[in-house]
Write a structure and sequence with these properties.
It contains 17 helices and 13 strands. The chain is an alpha/beta fold and 537 residues long. The structure holds pyridoxal-5'-phosphate. The site of pyridoxal-5'-phosphate has 12 residues, from α7. Pathway: Lipid metabolism; sphingolipid metabolism; Sphingolipid metabolism. Its EC number is 4.1.2.27.
Length: 537
């Protein structure tokens, strides 16, 4: 009986199959039948591996041919130069690379939209005012601008069209990977900023989980509560949930709490080096062990610290391990447009191997406009940003970054010491690099009101919640104002203390209200309304 049922079922399935094939044949002809056959074959064990091998050898011979025809044979592995490359040499190289770029004027029909060729001409401008404000070396800033302008109309949308942009990008990835102790397998992409880097890593882990663990219908990731909101944005866009682990009085999550937050639905682990709020590096060494034990990938958000922590460590300060030296770390985001001192719009996302990066790349082959592929969120990718990120790294080199890190750490230490000496104020936890948060332990000194007073004096210190504090990221422009800043804080504290119970104004008042409302979705709605209003004409 059972046997009969099975054979009936088989017969039934077979009939359906024949009907389906007939249908497809009628609708799509031979192509449709081939599609069905390939999909059937794909279900056979081992077949996908064979397809992968054939594909990869085809792609290799194709790219070899393409690169060969451009006469490009430069090695890809590039280390950040020990000493920055001299400016004149870089400018000569820029002229050469610009001229080398294919195709020539009037022969290109996509990618570059520019009104007139005049914009290609380099302009010398007065940069002094700007650089005086930012505290950056004026020559560095001018170099960034010159490279930006030289490549600002070029487009990295097609990696074969502008080989110099591809070279810049590969070299930036390579140099950053070296800083993060990556080996030869580490690959990455240049993106428009920390958020895009994070979005890409989160998409990789979601898509990887869909493939490896199709049973998971409600994917989760685990992160300390201090993780940057860009990860929440990714969760919102890509449909997963972040489980938050609280932090202790030292602003570090308890590792056991962290491990307990992992469920059968967990698809990736997250941590920061350092987190933005208090400048503290998460216990990534321990989280890496958990990742290995549980067989989960681990993303380290080093957007803030990626271009600062390596130098802080080299200067001899204690920095917990956070990069590819830890075997559990599978990806790292690091912003070139923060302490890499490039222009805004540049960040690096690194993966331990290309198997992971594959999940980042979008491909679409059915467009009448041709085969379409794109490595990241953006379609057109501005060449100027890639070129200026490259020249920032090349011109500073290890010695340039170390020199800046030393100055900024000295400034940070002077400020932290000075603030800890101000009665009522203290630094939250033990920050690892060039930022910190200021709190008050004096019931008569409302730290948010201190923020208000500072703001009236022209100082823009960011307000933070739970616990309430003021955030400071130390930038080159602060090197010259240490005493002035400490004095302003002292005066502000005295003013608040002398008029006990001063009421909060502006954003401080709003933060006070927010802290009291337990239902945060109301506040989320409020924020949405705020943006709606702000962008009205
Ligand atoms: C700045 C920052 C980000 C987001 O980067 P954007 O460049 O602003 O998109 C993410 N994480 C941390 C820790 C950051 O400091």
């Amino acid at each position: 009986m059972l046997c009969y049922c099975v054979s009936l079922l088989e017969h039934f399935v077979f009939t359906i199959f024949i009907v389906a094939v007939g249908h497809v044949w009628h609708k799509e002809g031979l192509d449709g039948i081939l599609r069905i056959l390939i999909n059937l074959l794909k279900t056979l064990p081992g077949f996908e591996y064979i397809i992968q091998q054939v594909l990869s050898s085809e792609v290799k011979s194709f790219t070899k041919q393409m690169k060969g025809s451009e006469g490009e044979g430069r090695p890809v592995k590039v280390k950040l130069p020990e000493k920055g490359i001299p400016r004149d040499q870089l400018l000569t190289e820029m002229e050469k690379l610009k001229g080398e770029q294919k195709p020539k004027k009037g022969k290109l029909f996509a990618y570059i939209f520019t009104k007139d060729d005049e914009t290609f001409r380099l302009q010398q401008k007065a940069y002094d005012l700007f650089t005086e404000k930012t505290g950056m070396n004026p020559e560095h800033d001018q170099l960034i601008r010159l490279f930006y302008e030289a490549f600002m109309h070029e487009n990295a949308l097609n990696p074969l069209m502008f080989p110099n942009l591809r070279r810049f990008e590969n070299e930036i990835i390579s140099m950053t990977s070296e800083m993060m102790h990556g080996d030869h397998d580490v690959v990455g992409s240049l993106t428009s900023g920390g958020t895009e880097s994070i979005l890409m890593a989160m998409k990789v882990y979601r898509d990887r989980a869909r493939k490896l663990w199709p049973r998971i219908k409600h994917p989760q990731m685990v992160a300390p509560i201090t993780i940057h909101p860009a990860h929440e944005k990714a969760a919102h866009y890509f449909g997963f949930e972040i489980i938050h682990v609280p932090v202790g009085n030292d602003f570090i999550p308890d590792v056991d709490d962290y491990e307990r937050a992992i469920t059968p639905n967990t698809i990736a682990l997250l941590a920061s080096a350092p987190q933005y709020c208090h400048g503290i590096v998460d216990p990534i060494e321990e989280i890496s062990d958990i990742a290995i034990k549980k067989g989960l990938p681990l993303h380290v958000d080093s957007c803030f610290g990626g271009f600062m922590l390596p130098w802080v460590e080299k200067l001899g300060y204690p920095v917990p391990k956070y990069d590819f030296r830890l075997p559990g770390v599978t990806s790292i985001s690091a912003d070139v447009h923060k302490y890499g001192y490039s222009s805004k719009g540049a960040s690096v996302i690194l993966y331990r191997n290309s198997e992971l990066r594959k999940y980042q790349i979008f491909a679409y082959s059915r467009w009448p406009g041709g085969l379409f592929g794109s490595p990241s969120m953006a379609g057109s990718r501005p060449g100027g940003l890639i070129a200026s990120a490259w020249v920032a790294l090349m011109s500073l080199g290890v010695s340039g970054y170390m020199e800046m890190a030393k100055k900024l750490m000295d400034t940070t230490n002077k400020l932290k010491d000075g603030i800890n000496r101000i009665e009522s104020l203290h630094i939250l936890g033990k920050p690892h690099m060039t930022s910190f948060a200021i709190g008050s332990h004096d019931p008569d000194v409302d730290i948010m009101v201190v923020g208000d007073v500072m703001e009236r004096g022209g100082w823009r210190v960011e307000r933070q919640l739970s616990p309430e504090s003021l955030h400071c990221t130390i930038l080159p422009s602060h090197i010259a104002v240490v005493e002035e800043l400490l004095q302003a804080l002292k005066t502000a504290v005295m003013e608040v203390k002398s008029q006990k119970g001063q009421v909060r104004s502006g954003s401080s008042a709003m933060y006070g209200m927010v802290a009291k409302i337990p239902e945060k979705t109301i506040i989320d709605d409020f924020i949405v309304e705020f943006f709606n209003e702000v962008y009205k004409m």
